[in-house]
Description:
Elements: H1 2-17, H2 25-32, H3 44-52, H4 55-67, H5 73-81, H6 86-93, H7 96-100, H8 117-120, H9 128-131, H10 135-138, H11 143-147, H12 158-163, H13 167-172, H14 176-185, H15 188-192, H16 202-208, H17 210-218, H18 226-230, H19 250-258, H20 279-284, H21 287-294, H22 303-307, H23 317-325, H24 329-336, H25 339-347, H26 353-356, H27 376-384, H28 389-421, H29 427-446, H30 452-514
Amino acid sequence: MVFACVVTLVAVEARAEEPEFAPSAALQALLSAPGEGGEPLVGSEAIAYFEDLPAQAKELFDAAASAGMLGDPNQLAEILDLRLSAGKVELLMRDNCALCHTDPGAQDAETLFTSDPEANGSPPHLNLSEVVNDVHFRRGLSCAGCHGGDPDDDMMADEIYERWPEAPQRHEDRTWIPEFCSRCHADPTFMRRFNPGLPTDQYAKYRESRHGMRLLGEGDSKAAQCVSCHGVHGIRGPKSPRSLVHPQNVPYTCGGCHGDAEYMRGYTTLDGEPLPTDQLAAYEGSVHGRALLVGGDLGAPACNDCHGNHAAIPPDVSSVAEVCRTCHAGNGELFDGSKHKDAFEANGWPECATCHGNHAVVETDDSMLSEDSSPLCYECHREHAEYNPDCVRTARYFHASITSLARESHELGELVHVLAEKGLDADPLASTVQELDDYLRQLRSRIHTFEKSEFDEVEGPGRAAAEKGRQLVAEADAEYRFRRNGLFVSLGFMLLLVLAIYFKITSFFDRFLSSGNHGFSNSYSFS
């Protein structure tokens, strides 16, 4: 308590020692400037925010107002309405480039930073709210970091004009962007100052990507480059939910181009077929898409997990399996030892995708092995293995064995609840059902060996677990019958005992009443 009081006293004294801020006439004029209706342009909430800022931050506003870089009350109101932290205030108010471009009196709509670009007729990338949250801005690399010049200058330097292509050229020909960004991002010495863990080989990878070859090799400015995926002034790190490259946003970032049939018109796959544009819709309905976009599982794969990031390229037949094995390594190892491995390589079929698909990967279930509900195995076998009836027989055996054990697991699982409701110990059966389910999971993976002998190595113990479960149910049923019969015997015995006591008492009273000696005297009178 004494310590708390001392801390409070020190804090109070510190605030008391802080010199009181007195705004200059220029800043005071901006803070109190009236609007068209006579009310102050800078609202009361903005004033309250300003008053709560540290004195150092207030002095930066004052200095900017005195220097003329903060010259419009609307400009001041917009900056205050951002409710920036003291650190961001310092970054913004020390940058004359940003201050000048937030002044509606000095800029036209095409160059004005504003929190509402649509209302002010400004381009979307000039959103001031995005600028102050950009990862470069937060690291101190504001306008001059990319555009050149000096943030302390009050006029634009010639370097800025020389550094950038003319507007029409830079908008129509985007080949300059990757090299421009790589001036920093491909320089390990420079990047070490800001983020030592960030790779600096992105540009080298991009040059070898399908996008890079299109843009840099063929001059196709429709091909994706840095700003296509990362944005312009509102760039955020991949962990930010608002980042264009956050895992849950990647499908929509990629789909912005690849899901647009008109934009992708004329592009073809490696075999010359028109490039499909239904990938995003297919992915959204896939098991991967639902896990990531609906379930929020950030470990589920998005576009870049299979196609790559800066080195994005369509996986060819030989690499599809390796992409899938990043997560499904066990099934890949089982497939490697199978006869299908040789068949797939001989026919040039992509592993995994041939049976499971690519963008529209559905959740697997046992019906995929069924001859009645899915032609997956049987059409292929009829076409490519018509002289080997073992192929069809093996698929049928897999399906029959798995569905049989799955049915037993379900039935035994239901009986766990029945036993518990009867007051019996259901834990042994629940443990056995869990064991059976483990074998079922292994069996569903073992089908990737396509070998009955390897399948049976797990199917046998699974059958034993099912038999053990049935035996536990039988024992529990016998125990229940024993308890029930014992209860009936006990109830019968107690009933006989009650009857015996009843007859004994009845007999006693009969003899007592018949003797005439009731043990009471009638000579008493009450008067």
